[in-house]
Amino acid sequence: MSDSSSDTQEQYWNLVEEFIELANKRTEECDLGAVSQALMYAAARYSAFYLASASESRKDLKEDKDDAIDRFSREFKRLFADSTEDYIENYKVYMRTEEE
């Protein structure tokens, strides 16, 4: 029998890699900044859909909105800070440069 937590983790990381792969592919024909903005907007739209789907009613959605925005914002800030720190630590590898 498979470990559902392990399966969920694997599925999560597969999705992350798929989204990054698509974003990287799109930078071949689109500006890097445009791809980043589009990805951020898509994440915001989908997160709003996720919140609405989890709400029992429009009233509940309206009541939960501010807390959800705070939660999602904190999580994005944490993930962005961690990822930026990773790029700082691995700049030469990720950016393929000798610069320190």
UniProtKB/TrEMBL annotation:
It comes from the Bacteria. Gene3D superfamilies: 1.10.287.3020. InterPro entries: DUF3144. This is DUF3144 domain-containing protein.
